[in-house]
């Protein structure tokens, strides 16, 4: 356990005033008289099961061979040299084509190019909760997410960005936050130009691991909001979907 005493409590069912996502890394410090929040430390990345699913096996190979990575809307991958340069949706599309080709093809169907973050969110959201379709299974509840699942959201209107949203892979089962019902810390793998909490990308962008926060609806358990840097800053309410690639 550790004491998180540097940021305001970002519980997502009461949303803070509008700020851009870029400010997440430079959020203001809390006042001394604000209550401290005790939160759990995420389990060690050494405990990640890279053999759990075909998606996890591909991600494990990337993590093992990685020598250089950067976030770019272009695409440059050299597995032999361990070079991986893409954006979040580029990573997801590349991994799915290797680990779950049916899900990859269904996600790209009818699009002029490869799917973007909002395309993943919308395609998964069209599947009835708990049902399977075209290589995907929709995971309704945050607490049912498992390693290898895809979490995708649409960019909130408040966020000033040319991107359509964000998409990432779940690395470990979500961990509930004590005393914050419906809040879960989720370890993810993605490609990003911004760092999450406990991020592995020191001094660079691109592929890496980090911890985000997902807040679930009290009745349905569905994801309703995300925190880019876990519990260290505010949350954003938007359309979020979780999908399980099946093949």
Short descriptors:
single chain, 247 residues, alpha+beta, ten-stranded antiparallel β-sheet, three-stranded mixed β-sheet, 4 helices, 15 strands, 17% helix, globular, disordered N terminus
Please explain how this structure is put together.
This protein is α+β, with helices and mostly antiparallel strands. The chain has one domain (2-245). The protein contains 4 helices and 15 strands. A hairpin with a 4-residue loop joins strand 4 and strand 5. Helix 1 (54-65) packs across helix 2 (88-99) and helix 2 crosses helix 3. It is globular, with a radius of gyration of 17 Å. The relative contact order is 0.22.
Please report the number of helical segments.
4
Q: State the end-to-end distance.
A: 38 Å
Structurally, how many domains make up the residues? 1
Silhouette: globular
- Report the mean per-residue pLDDT as an integer: 86
Radius of gyration: 17 Å
Which stretches of 5+ consecutive residues score pLDDT under 50?
1-41
Measured by DSSP, the beta-strand proportion falls in: 25-35%
Give the structural class: alpha+beta
Order of helices and strands: EEHEEEHHHEEEEEEEEEE
Number of strands: 15
Question: How does the major sheet shape up?
Answer: 10 strands, antiparallel
- Percent helix, as a range, is 10-25%
